[in-house]
Structures are given as structure tokens and as C-alpha cells.
Amino acid sequence: MATVTIKNIPDSVYQDLKRMAARHHRSMNQQVIVLLKSSSRSVQMDPEAFLTHVRRVRVKPRKGPLTDRVLNGLKRQGRL
């Protein structure tokens, strides 16, 4: 396995990672690996699957405008 060293991480980012790792009972290293895997999956998303998802979400009727609050709620539900 490869090793990566990250230098000059801002203190706020480090503290956020530390809190996330503790919340999920992971080491800092494990937490960074989980985050990297998660971001690489979103980057490698199949375009056809993405378009299918977007079309499915768009056809659902909405009540009212699509605000930041509505979008954040949908994200928490795992719908976006």
C-alpha cells in the first residue's frame, strides 16, 4: 500500500478531522481514507447513472421554491 504525507494542514481542518474520527470511532488515518474513498466514488460516478438520478429527482412534484433549506433537507435524506 502507498503512503501519503500531508503537510501544512490548517488547524481548523485538522480539528474537524479529529472530531469526525472520534465521532465514528476511527483513527485519523482511517477517517482520511474513508473521506478519500467517498470523494473518489463521487468523482467516478457513471454519467448515465447520474442523469437517471437527476431525471428521477426532477420529475417529483415540489411544494414551493427550491431553496437552500429544501436542498439541505434533501441532502440529509440522501436524496441528492
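Above is the first protein from milestone M3; the second protein from the same milestone is given next.
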Amino acid sequence: MTKDEAQQFWAPIINDFQPLDSAWLGEMDKFYVDRAAGDPTNSALQLLKEGLLSSLNRPKPYRALLTGHRGSGKSSELMRLAEELAEDFFVVRFDAELILSPETTNHFDIILGMGIAVFATAQLKDLSPKRKLADDLLNSLSKFIRKYEDRKGFKLDLASLVKQVAVGLVNVSAVGVVTGGNPAALVAATAFQATKLELNVGDEHIRTLELPPNRIEVISALNKIIEWVQDECGKRVLMIVDGLDKVATPRARLLFADSSLLRDPLCALVYAAPIVFYHRAVAWQAEQIFDSYEMLPNVPVHRRSPRDKNWMDSRELSESGAEVMREVVRRRLAKHDLTVDDVIAPQALTLLAQMSGGVMRAMILLFNNAATFAKMENKERIDGDLALKSVMRQRKRLQTRLNLKYRETLERALKERSLLGGESESVEDELLTNDYLLSYEDGDGAWFDVHPNALPLLRG
């Protein structure tokens, strides 16, 4: 294969092996892989779908949290959920990571963002919502900030906020905007530069917002926007808030456990929440507030080790888990009318599946690197050597960041086959967040294991 031929063959494949972005919007059926193997009782997506559809026959909307490791595929699952429920709900997808600041965001920013997201989506869907609906929400928040933050003259500008939030809606919404939207509005929205929406209201004022008069004024203004949209389109609003899984554990507690404000919007709600929060006792408080707290586990590409086996021993391949990861590759290659055998040797694909740890983003990036190496070497197919090069590239990154505390905590957790908690909690949170320590579930239970590409580093 010549250099030009390699470029022509590999470039489009490499482009399609990127972490999920707007290029895939509207094509979920082409690349979505059902990791539950057709068993809806083991599918976080289907459990959420069932809860949401069942709630249509009740006056109280369904509110849920979805968690999972970064890169586990939550955004894909939420896009799929939005697609499958588009006929039953007016779906609004709001990417909080894009519009808000995960380090500092609180209920004020989220309530404002949600209100503007519903309003902007209604505009893009040609429902022509009355400006007064959004102005009332902005005025209630502005009045609160002037009073409690002592910011005289503070005022929110609707046009500016809609521009900010509309960018996020266009970039991340598979259903709420992309299908059936106003083309002119979409073009105009994408021309705007996304900037962070930050009210900078202190966390100490959340309790003040919970006071009945303030709560009624602010939340009622948000709910009037939701109710208008529901009356206009004849469907209940489903708000999917992605990106809040990036907040740290203390902020997750503030958002989802210490206050019920995020349950107050009168629409169906699904929030992405952090993996570390799910594994801590404080998550029980969130389960008292929300109807469901679902976990999207990583695909178990290795079988759970027996208790009498040393934690340093090699893991046994789970063929069913590896096949899920192979299907991820198969579907993306099918877009180019290519089979897996056309592009990668079977043993090379299995190696990538194993070393992904069952993390969807890791699988995509491992394949991307291997395909890039094939292009650089003018090869027609990814062989075992190229797959190993991709694996080693990932391992080097893991090694660079594997400090002594990480190593010691990992070894202890693997030996005890459990999270340690206590003084180790903050380190464990980092290990979970950065995918050194992975969590899995199957029909027999839940467990933790080290990332398979980090295991050789611990042995060393």
C-alpha cells in the first residue's frame, strides 16, 4: 500500500473512531451496541426507559440519576434514550459540562441552564415560546442575586443566554434539536461561540433558595416554561442533563443529596452523576430524593477472579464481553462497507478489547491509535504488533501517573476485593475517576478490578 493509498483508506476510518461527538448525531441506530445482550433487566437504559414510560400514567414525573465511569458510554446511552422516547416526550438534552463549570456549578446555574435549554429547544422546534416566560425566570434569579449577593444592578440578558445554551443544544442533542428543528435557527446557533454560564452565587445561599418564598418564585418560573411547552406540544418534557458526572464528590453531594431542588422541575428528569458518589454511603440520601439511581457498568471483558486466586494472576477472558467491544468496531466499520476482517486481525482485535477494560472510550481510542499506526506504516491491516503498540502507548500514560499512593491503594483494594474507605477514600475517588480502578456488574453481583493495562505495572 502506497502512502497515498494508506491515507485514502485509513483517514475516514480514523475519523470515525473518535470519542462520541456531534458527527454521530442522528445515526444512533448505526453504531449503538446493546451491552445487555437483549436482557432488559440488566440494561440501565431499558430500566430508565421503563420508569419514564410508566410515569406517563401518573401525575408525578419520573426523576433519575445515571452514573458510570468516565468514558463508559453514558452519553451514548442518554442519546439512545432520547431517541427511543422522542415519540412519547418532548426531549431536551442539556450538556452541563459544555455550558457550566463542573468545579463550581450549583443549583442556581443548573436551574437557569435548564430553563433556557427548554426555552431554546422550543424555539428551535418552532413552538414560539413567549419571551415573558424566560424573562420571569431571569428576573426571579436576578432579584435573588441582587438581594442576597448584594450585587446592585445585576441583570441577566435573555438573548445572550439563549445563544450560549443553544450552542450546547446543537452540539449534543440527538433529538431535541437536530431532528425537526428550524434549519435557520440551527445555523445561527452554531455560529455563536460557547462560553460558560456562571452566576457565581455562593453555595451558602442554596439554603436561602430553599426558603418557601424564594423556592416558589424561582422554581415556579422554571416550571411555567416547562408547563407552557407541555401544553403546546401535548407531551411531557423529558430533560436529560449530561455532564454533571464530571463534578467532584463533595459537589455531587451538594447537588444530589443535600438538597432536593434538582427534583423540583415539573418534568421527567435524568441527570448524569459521578461514579465516585455512587459508591459512597451518602448516595443513600440521593436515593431518597430521586426515583432511581442507575449504574452503567463497564463491559466485563474479563471474568471475575475467584476469591482463592491471587490478585496479580492473569484474568480469564470473557468472550461475551469481548464480543460487545468487537461489535463496537464492527458497526463503525460497516459505515464504510468494511468488515472487521478487512481491517484488523482477529487476535489483534481481541487484544484491544481485553486491554480496553470494557471502557467504551478506551476501546475507541485504542483502535484509533492502532489505525493511525497502520496508516503511518502504510499497512493494509492492523496486525498484532500494531495493536500491541497501541496498548503500550496507553500503558505508558497510565505508568506516568501511577504514583506511590495510587499503587499502594490499588494493591490493598485488590487484595481486600473491596473499596477501603476511610483515609483512603480520596485516593480511591481519583482511581475511580481516572479509570485505574474499574467497577463491573453482572448477573451474579458487582466487583472492582484494576484496569487490565495497569495490572502489569503493579506486578513490576
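Note on the second protein: Residues 38-295 form one domain.
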